[in-house]
Specification:
two-stranded antiparallel sheet, elongated, 128 residues
């Protein structure tokens, strides 16, 4: 899910199960924020006609959050678990269960994080 640009919440709260993301959009992954907003009907496809004129320039001035809840499979309970990003553009803070895991900065930079200690073996995990 992606959160609206300009949200006032931080990664520590967004990456917890109690955070309310009800008004967020189902994210298209892999993809960009614009990809998601086009897929969800917020904006028209900018590749047709003059639709690109309907995409506000301010869209890239906001910080956006991606959020994913998941349960760790039982087969992973005794293993080290790594999180791989195959390309972030341009800056990312990575949070899991209220803990900052790390950050990525640069055009389409990859990131690899050992998330073993931050995982909940039982129950819901939340990545932001």
């Amino acid at each position: 899910m992606i959160g609206p640009g300009g949200t006032h919440a931080d990664g520590a709260s967004i990456s917890t199960p109690r955070f309310n993301s009800r008004n967020w959009h189902q994210a298209t992954v892999p993809g960009t924020v614009l990809t998601t907003l086009v897929d969800q009907g917020v904006f028209p496809d900018p590749l047709f006609g003059l639709n690109n004129l309907q995409i506000p320039e301010a869209l890239n001035k906001y910080s956006w959050w991606y959020r994913k809840s998941f349960t760790l499979p039982e087969s992973y309970h005794t293993k080290r678990v790594w999180l791989h990003f195959d390309g972030i553009n341009y800056t990312a803070e990575v949070w899991l269960n209220g803990k900052r895991i790390g950050g990525i900065e640069g055009a389409f930079i990859r990131g690899v994080f050992d998330i073993t200690e931050a995982l909940r073996r039982n129950g819901t995990n939340v990545l932001a």
